[in-house]
């Protein structure tokens, strides 16, 4: 494992005379965001076991010392990169969620839980790295459980909204959310592997059919 580098002051731009606290905070946040985005890309490309802090620093266009200032070691960087990636997906899922049918919101969540585009395929590579680490590392295991809890919450909120509006039948929300999570994981892995027996439309259709009767909605996957 690459040894931790020495602590370093933040970007010199953060300490320019006359800079306001707000400007400093914005620059610090921008630097962290750039580092986290770079970490997601590098981890997805080479895997956590091969990653070195220097690789991320070079990809982000910052010094290794600055990277260590923000993230003390690979483990902290990996955990925050996962959370960052997850947060980006969560922001997208909130798009006009209050103005579209609950079935569309739920379909969007399911769409984003599958490797449906290059960015989501990158997210899936990160998930797969986390799964492997979680088998042997208690901290990674807890992170995975916490992230699954957030996914479960997103699904449950969409289902409850549909029930409250009368769009969905009343049902066991937790059981339905758990089923959707399990199906998304299973089909997602096969899509990542390029399994010729399954493609994205078939995966989405199968997942939706599994709960359509429970929710009382048509079996066709909604247009999102």
Structure characterization notes:
With 224 residues, this protein is mostly helical. It has two domains: 12-72, Arc Repressor Mutant, subunit A (Orthogonal Bundle); 79-215, Tetracycline Repressor, domain 2, CATH 1.10.357.10. It is built from nine helices and no strands. The chain has helices spanning 21-46, 53-60, 64-70, 74-93, 102-112, 118-134, 138-165, 173-192, 200-215. Helix 1 packs across helix 2, helix 5 packs antiparallel against helix 7 (138-165) and helix 7 crosses helix 8 (173-192). The protein starts with 20 loop residues before the first helix and ends in a 9-residue tail after the last helix. Residues 1-15 have low confidence and may be disordered.
Put simply, the count of helices is 9
Distance between the termini: 44 Å
Q: Give the total of beta strands.
A: 0
Rg over alpha carbons: 20 Å
Give the domain tally.
2
Classify the fold: give the CATH topology of the largest domain.
Tetracycline Repressor, domain 2
Question: Which percent range fits the helix content?
Answer: 55-70%
Determine and state the CATH class of the largest domain. Mainly Alpha
Give the rounded overall mean pLDDT.
Answer: 86
CATH architecture field of the largest domain: Orthogonal Bundle
What is the CATH superfamily label of the largest domain?
Answer: Tetracycline Repressor, domain 2
Globally, the shape reads: globular
Domain HTH tetR-type: 29-89
Protein name: HTH tetR-type domain-containing protein
Organism: Streptomyces kronopolitis
Pfam family, one: TetR_N
């Amino acid at each position: 494992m690459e040894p931790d580098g020495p602590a370093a002051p933040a970007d010199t731009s953060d300490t320019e005379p006359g800079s306001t606290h707000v400007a400093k905070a914005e620059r610090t946040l921008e630097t962290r965001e750039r580092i986290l985005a770079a970490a997601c890309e590098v981890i997805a490309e080479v895997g956590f076991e091969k990653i070195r802090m220097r690789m991320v620093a070079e990809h982000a266009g910052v010094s290794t010392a600055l990277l260590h200032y923000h993230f003390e070691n690979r483990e902290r960087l990996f955990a925050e990169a996962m959370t960052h990636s997850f947060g980006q997906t969560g922001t997208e899922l909130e798009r006009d969620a209050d103005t579209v049918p609950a079935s569309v919101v739920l379909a969007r969540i399911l769409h984003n839980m599958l490797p449906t585009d290059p960015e989501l395929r990158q997210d899936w590579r990160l998930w797969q790295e986390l799964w492997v680490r979680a088998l042997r590392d208690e901290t990674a295991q807890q992170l995975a459980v916490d992230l699954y809890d957030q996914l479960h919450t997103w699904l449950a909120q969409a289902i409850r909204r549909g029930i409250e509006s009368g769009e969905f039948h009343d049902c066991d929300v937790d059981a339905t959310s758990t089923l959707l999570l399990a199906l998304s994981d299973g089909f997602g892995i096969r899509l990542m592997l390029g399994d010729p027996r399954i493609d994205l439309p078939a995966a989405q259709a199968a997942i939706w059919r599994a709960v359509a009767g429970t929710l009382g909605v048509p079996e066709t996957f909604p247009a999102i």
